[in-house]
Design a protein that fits this description.
By secondary structure, the chain is an alpha/beta fold. Helix content is about 50%, strand content about 10%. A 7-stranded mixed sheet has the order 1-2-4-3-5-6-7, sandwiched between helices. A 7-stranded mixed sheet has the order 9-8-10-11-12-15-16, with helices on both faces. The longest helix has 24 residues.
Length: about 700
């Protein structure tokens, strides 16, 4: 049971018992809970109710505490004037109560509020008064131990104080503390002024002041932008053009030169080198994104920024996924910018983040993103984290605490369902995929007995297999064998296959990769069982040469496939035409279409993830706003549901309350004799119209 549910239950009980004191406290705690979740509207409502009760009970101490928290809520909502009113109320009560800690907190918050209004002199006055109040509390602390005990019991949660106030409290035991706090306050003011003065300054000037490579053991630069070299020589980090990640290709040298030019502030040279790279490798989306970013910055139009997190180093599969993710993201950026789809002429800028081929590298990037969002207020969301690794869960938790929404193109782990109100995805969970696969096996393939193969060391493999087993069994069918194998060691599979065939399954559900499933298909007897698998099989463009037998028995599910629209006899979205025109403008790759003319599932899903973020952004800006926060975007994403759902290239985009795509279709593929795929069924609702 969540803490929020428990608080609501306790509140209901307090009201039934007419316990106003408990009701007042619980309303305040609910406000804190929603504040922590980033729902400042709800937080302010609960704080207001708590404040009304505190006044009715003439509880001045609690009235002051709640007034301070209300000020923080309205500051977070951008309503600085109202925030100042409540901070002033909190200050007045603190004066009357001679509560110097609360007085220092209110004064520090007033300083921050006036700093947000660019009233620097008034802000400094309040910070100085906060120092005096902190000094008084020190004297009070040293002369009255009983009063000290009472003060340390006041309700001032961490989220209800500013960093300046916290530092004042910690340093108040020395005279030097006063000067330290004032220094921090002034430095914070100067930094805020620099940020708000010009977003372009961060992009063009700060890279000149920081090397593009940084030491992972040291602190992240103030603007968050740098790259580290990992122990296996992969380069991990976030780049706005100061570094080129995908350089193991023919245009790599030109991209590196472009990044060096940009870092040195030579923007024209950088543009020429990025363009040269794009001319050599026409499907290199990293180069195209950087070119588009330069155009956006030079346009003078307002813009919003998204951070695209993917894998551009590591093994070949990781790099291919990263390249496809950038292709999808770029097409969405280009579409919205060139057609001016965002109100007010707002443009779209993309930062590129590489988390590499090992999940342990992602922690550094998580910290960077939080820092970048703090420094650059144009950053409103993240598209990415394509994997199902533990780093994805860590990233969601960290970004959620920073109140940064994320839409993942392909993370399908069951553990991500409902993990955070800031997390959304355009692919169904593994559970949904396995349920549809089980239904297809029963109703279309007419199977009754299944043998299941999975790798217990792989969360993906184990979860997919477990969900298939649960549904297949629940429908009255039999699991006649469960075999565990080790991925990448096909020699462990053959004996298991022979053993499972002894119990006569009519379908083998293989939760694993192409190379592993090849052992099964190459050694099936004729006649023999059908074979099913999951979306990981569609990561291959076509099946390898060592797998050319029994392909007519193979069926597998996936989240997206380029030929689905033709199969359903529906008009294809402009995405497909734009894809081929953008990445193969001279039609030089007809014989090798993937990545040039024909998109793979990762590029389709990345486009849809960006489409969701941009649709939410469009809906926020349509309300007359000229700018918005990540929290605004999170609320807009929640409303992409029901009648507000949109058609993506992979199918319907309609988010449920758990962040999953509701009613999202699953595509069933089979293999042609030549090893290529073909769509044979679409399970679920594919578009808004059915």
């Amino acid at each position: 049971m969540s803490k929020t549910v428990q608080l609501f239950q306790q509140l209901e009980k307090a009201r039934q018992e007419n316990n106003q004191e408990a009701e007042c406290t619980l309303l305040y705690e609910l406000g804190n809970e929603f504040f922590t979740l980033g729902d400042f509207h709800s937080a302010s409502e609960f704080y207001e109710q708590s404040l009304t009760l505190a006044r009715a009970m003439k509880n001045r101490h609690h009235e002051g505490t709640v007034s301070n928290s209300l000020g923080n809520a309205y500051m977070s909502l951008g309503e600085v004037h109202r925030a100042i009113e409540y901070y002033q109320r909190a200050l007045d009560i603190a004066h009357q109560e001679e509560d110097y800690r609360a007085e220092s907190a209110a004064l520090g918050n007033l300083g921050s509020a006036y700093a947000a209004r660019d009233e620097t002199s008034r802000a400094i006055e309040f910070y100085e008064q906060a120092l005096i109040a902190a000094d008084k509390e020190t004297q009070q602390y040293e002369t009255n131990s009983s009063e000290r005990a009472n003060l340390t019991g006041t309700l001032l949660p961490p989220e209800a104080t500013t960093a300046s106030n916290l530092q004042a409290s910690r340093l108040q035991r020395s005279r030097k503390a006063k000067f330290n706090l004032l220094y921090v306050a002034l430095a914070s003011l100067l930094f805020a002024l620099i940020i708000f003065a010009s977003a372009a300054y961060i992009i063009y000037v700060l890279p000149n002041l920081n090397n593009n490579k940084c030491d992972p053991t040291s602190s992240i630069p103030t603007n968050g932008l740098c790259v580290v070299q990992a122990s296996n020589n992969e380069y991990i980090g976030v780049s706005n053009g100061i570094f080129a990640f995908d350089t193991k290709r023919s245009d790599g040298a030109l991209k590196q030169q472009a990044a060096d030019d940009f870092k040195a502030g030579n923007i024209n040279a950088a543009k020429l080198h990025w363009q040269g790279a794009a001319n050599i490798e026409t499907n290199d989306a990293e180069a195209l994104i950087q070119l588009e970013n330069l155009r956006v910055l030079a346009s003078g139009h307002p813009y919003i920024t998204f951070i695209v997190v993917t894998t551009l180093s590591g093994d070949d599969t990781s790099i291919t996924t990263g390249r496809s993710n950038l292709q999808g993201a770029y097409l969405a950026q280009k579409e919205y910018n060139y057609a001016s789809k965002l109100p007010g002429g707002v443009q779209v800028r993309l930062l590129i983040a590489n988390i590499g081929g090992q999940s342990t590298f992602a922690t550094f990037v998580e910290e960077q993103i939080v820092q970048i969002a703090r420094a650059d207020h144009t950053v409103v969301g993240v598209m990415g984290w394509p994997s199902n690794s533990g780093s994805t869960i860590d990233a969601i938790n960290k970004l959620s605490k920073a109140r940064i929404p994320m839409v993942s193109p392909s993370a399908s782990s069951n553990l991500l369902t409902g993990i955070s109100p800031y997390f959304f995805r355009v692919v169904p969970s593994l559970e949904s995929q396995a349920i549809d696969a089980a239904k297809y096996a029963e109703q279309t393939l007419h199977t009754k007995q299944a043998a299941i193969f999975y790798d217990p060391s792989s969360p993906y493999s184990e979860s997919l297999a477990a969900s298939f087993k649960e549904q297949f069994s629940a429908d009255g069918n039999s699991i006649v064998a469960q075999e565990t194998y080790t991925s990448g060691h096909p020699e462990t599979i053959l004996d298991l296959l022979h053993a499972s065939l002894l119990v006569h399954p009519d379908v083998i559900y293989f939760s694993g990769s192409v190379n592993d499933i090849a052992v099964v298909l190459n050694n099936l007897p004729t006649p023999g069982p059908k074979v099913m698998g999951g979306d990981i099989l569609s990561r291959m463009i076509y099946f390898p040469n060592n797998l050319q037998v029994n392909l007519n028995r193979l069926y597998f599910t996936t989240f997206a496939y380029s030929d689905t629209w033709n199969f359903l006899k529906l008009p294809k979205p402009t995405f497909f035409k734009s894809y081929s025109q953008t990445f193969d403008p001279s039609r030089q790759h007809v014989g090798n279409p993937y990545g040039y003319i024909q998109p793979d599932s990762d590029s389709i899903l990345a486009y849809d993830a960006m489409l969701a973020l941009l649709t939410g952004s469009k809906n926020v800006l349509a309300k007359g706003k000229t700018s918005f926060t990540p929290i605004d975007l999170r609320h807009a994403l929640e409303k992409i549901t029901g009648s507000q759902a949109v058609d993506g290239v992979s199918g319907l985009i309609s988010f449920g309350t758990d962040g999953n795509p509701a009613h999202k279709a699953i595509v069933v593929l089979s293999a042609k004799p030549n090893g290529h795929f073909q769509v044979i069924s679409v399970l679920g609702q594919f578009s808004v119209n059915g």
